[in-house]
Amino acid sequence: METKACVLHSAKDLRIEDVPVAELGGDQVLVRIGAGGICGSDLHYYLDGGFGAVRVREPFILGHEVAGTVEAVGTAVARVRPGERIALNPSRPCGKCKFCQAGEQQHCLDMWFYGSAMRMPHSQGAFRQHIVAGEFQCEPVGDVSLSEAACCEPLSVALHAVRQAGSLTGKRVLVTGSGPIGALVSGAARYAGALEVVATDLFDAALAKAVEMGATRTVNVSRAPGLASAEFTAEKGYFDAAFECTGAGAVIKSVLPVLRPRGTLVQVGVTGDVPIPIDVLGPKEIRLVGTSRFHSEYALGARLLKEGRIDVRPIITATLPFEQAVQAFELAADRRAQMKVQLTF
């Protein structure tokens, strides 16, 4: 059996090709993919052929934010059944290394993650009409649309980031950068009990989406005073926790003056070397925390979507058929006009 897939050969060389579908194993599921979201990493592969030291070295299928419908199940499968809608977890940890054994699967030493060129051979992605996946990857989503279910992966990233900050109940929270992840962090922070969520961005359109996702107010940092207002800097800082989603050194620096002493800064945005003012971080005893992917949060995200407790529809701004994948990627590159561009299969 063959299926059509979005195969990237090199930067700007994305083709729709026939690829084989694996044989169905006893603990596996055949899924017909219905929707898939274009992530920032997918965009880097398409536009630049990779990011940093991670480069496309062989043709591979893009995509990891997907959802679909179960078409067939192996003889040992019990959690899902044919006809059921599922969000498909792209993370496949080995389950054997010291991190997996310690319940820290996001740090697995032998991780396979859909649509990643970090290893060789590359880990093939899920932008295809059919895929055989492990039963453990499938999270039922009930009657939720497949476009919403495909947002389970970025929502899981946001949920994990919010957990890194500890309890947010009754807290004042800052979210810098209101792209797809930042907007979802705003929603996840409100779900986690934050009393106030202030979202920032350079563009009003992105800030409007953050409000739809749960931000209580916004700050356009392209206009003075931005975060440097007296309200936020008075008495050593206004916010209990901050989620930095841009990865920009200047933004990271601007967050520290508005965090209260012993506040928590969760660095969500990926970046390279940036200067950090230790003379502020140290005396204010600010806790700087990293965050990486997710594990148990995927099942949580699927349940929140299924129960309607977090609405991800505001971040979905465009949907195109997968045959128009090149147009979809070009559209997704316009960050001023688009939040989350999805493909349908």
Structure in words:
With 345 residues, the protein is of the alpha/beta class. It has two domains: 2-151 and 312-344, Quinone Oxidoreductase, Chain A, domain 1 (Alpha-Beta Complex); 158-290, Rossmann fold (3-Layer(aba) Sandwich), CATH 3.40.50. Helix content is 25%, strand content 30%. The chain has helices at 40-48, 98-101, 146-149, 152-164, 180-191, 204-213, 230-233, 249-255, 278-281, 297-306, 325-332, and strands spanning 2-10, 13-20, 28-37, 50-51, 54-55, 60-61, 65-73, 85-88, 91-92, 112-113, 130-134, 138-140, 172-176, 196-201, 217-220, 239-244, 259-267, 287-290, 316-321, 340-344. The strands form five sheets. Strands 3, 7, 8, 11, 12, 19 and 20 form a seven-stranded mixed β-sheet that branches. A six-stranded parallel β-sheet has the order 15-14-13-16-17-18, with helices on both faces. The protein has a three-stranded antiparallel β-sheet with strand order 2-1-6, with helices on one face. β4 and β5 form a beta hairpin. The protein starts with a strand and ends with a strand.
